[in-house]
Write a structure and sequence with these properties.
Blueprint lengths: L6 H5 L2 H14 L2 H20 L12
Helix pairs in contact: 2-3
Length: 61
């Protein structure tokens, strides 16, 4: 899959989540689809429980 995005950005962008899943489904490979679903689910759970904020990029750099 060609999507180069951090977990933090992915967790805050529904369109990026959709794009990742669309790319996975387009491959027709069950293992790639499952990997994308697990990744999106993990990032969404991290956002919900607040741990995704630990990955926020430092804007002072």
């Amino acid at each position: 899959m060609d999507l180069e995005i951090s977990d933090y950005e992915l967790g805050h962008s529904l369109s990026a989540q959709r794009d990742l899943l669309e790319q996975a489904f387009a491959t027709g490979d069950d293992s790639i689809v499952e990997q994308a679903l697990v990744h999106v689910t993990m990032v969404r759970r991290m956002k919900k429980n607040g741990t995704l904020e630990w990955q926020r990029p430092d804007e002072d750099l």
